[in-house]
Amino acid sequence: MKTIRILNYAVNGLGLGHITRLIAINRWIRRISLALGIKPEIFFLTSSECDTIAYQNNFSAFKIPSKNSIRDSGINQIEYRKIAKQWVWNSINLINPHILIVDTFPYGSFNELFDIMDFGFKKIFIYRAIKPQIAENNNFQKALIGYDKIIIPIEFPLEDYKFPETISERVYKTKEIMIRDIGELYDRNESRNILGINENNLACYVSLGGGGDENAETFFENIISIIKNIPDVEFIIGAGPLYKGREFRANNVHWFYRYNALEYFSAFDFAISSGGYNNVHELLYTNIPSILYPLSRFYDDQERRINTLEKENLCIKLNSLERDEIINKINLIKDNEFRGKIKFNLLKRSMKNYAFDVAKIILSDFINTDDLDHIENQIPGSYFLSLKKENIPEIIGLNAINILDNNYTEYKKLRASLKSCSEYFGFDENVKNYFNELNKKIYYDFIEYPLHSLSLGFLKFVKNKGIELNLSLKYLKIFIQNNFNAQKNIQEVLLEATNYINLLSNKNQNINDSISEYIFENELKVNGANNEV
Is 182-349 CATH 3.40.50.2000? Predict the structure, then answer.
C-alpha cells in the first residue's frame, strides 16, 4: 500500500488556532487518502498546552513546552531556545516526511525553519490573516520563498495578503477553514439533549477561544456576575481546554467541557465571544448572531476583524466590559426581530468550509486530480456523523468505501485501455471523446447509490449481526474479489455478500467463526488466481 507521511508544525500561538486549523486540514487528508487506498502517516509537532486536541481527533502529537509554560516555570529562555531548535530539527530528520505543513509562522517560532528549506520534502505554508506590519516584515517575506505551496484561506472580506511577486504561481487562495463540516454537526435537538439545555429557552455560548488568555478568569467573572441576573437565557461557558481559572456558577450558567465544540453549535441562539480567527469563523459558519469583543494580540488583528463584520451587519461589537454595555447588547440580540436580521445576513453569505479544498491542494502532488475529484463526492461530512452515531470508527468506514469502489477501478482500467488503443490506432479527437464519454456513461450507469450509503448500510448490517468490523471488511474484500466483474455493479455484489452472510448465520456455530472460515478458504483461491496472473 502506498504511504504518505505528513508532519504538521503547530508551534507558538497563545490559543488553539494553529493546531485546530491543521487538524481540520489533516482530517480531510486522512479521509481522502484512506478512501483511495493510501496509508497516511500524520504527525504533529506542537507547543500547544492542549496537544490533547490532536488525540481527541485521532492524531499523534510530539509536544514541546510552550513559551508561556517556560516563562511560568522559570526555565532559562536562552537554554529553552537551544533545546527547542534542536528538537524541531531532530524531529524533522527522524520523521522524514513527504510533506511539511506550517501554519502562520513561515520561519518558525525560533527562526529554525530557515535551516530546513533545502530539504527534499514538499513544504506547505498556511497563510492565515495576520497584522500587516508582521506580514510585511523582511524575515516573513523571505521565508515564504522557501515554500512549494502557499495556501491563503482568505478571510472575509480581507484581501491584503503580502507575498513576493516571484512566487505568485505557488500561491493558492481558498477561504476559511473549519474543524468540522456542517454535515458533521448534531442538529438542534440532539445538541440540546447532549448539553442539557431546555428546548424552550434561549441559549447563549460564551467563549474566549482556547482559554489561554491571561485575563480569561477576570472576563468570565465579570460576564457571569452580569448574566446570572438574566433568567430567561441559559449561558453555556465554553472556557476552553487551556483555561486554568475558577468556575463561576449560577442557575442559568453551565460550563462546557467538550472538545470540538463546533459539533454542538446548533444548540445556540446567539453567542458572546472574543474575536479570534477560529471562534469568529465557526460562529459565522453556523450562522449564529454574535456579540464580539476584541482581544489584543501580537499577530491577530481582532479589532479589524470585528469592525469589518459589524459594518456588514454580521455581528454586534462589544467595546468594553462595562455592565451597562453588556446588558444593552444582550437585550438587543435577545430581540427576535433584531437577531433575525443578523441571522438573515449570515445566511445570505452561505459560508463553506474549505478544509477539504486545502487538503486536495496539498495532496495534488501525490494523487492525480481525477481520483481527488472522484472521491470528493463519496465522503461527505454527514457520512462521518452517521458513523459516529453508530459507534463505527472512521477508518473502518473509509476502508469500506475503498473496498466497494470497484466500478471506479474498472472505469480507470477501461480508460487506460481506450487511451492505449487511441494512441496505437491514431483515433482523431472526436472518436477519442466519444469513447471517453461512453466509458463515463457506463461507469455512472452502474452506480445507483453513493458509496457512502452502501458502506454505511453494510457496516450497520454486520454490526447488528454481531460480526467484528475488521473481520467483516476482510470478508467483503475477498467476496468482491471472487464475485465482481466488469459486467456487474457493486450494489449487486454487495447484496450477494449480505445474502451469503445470512446463509452463514444459519450454520450451527458462531457467525465470526463462519466468516473466518470463509476468509481462510477463499483467500487461497484469490491468491492462487493472482499468482497465475
Answer: yes
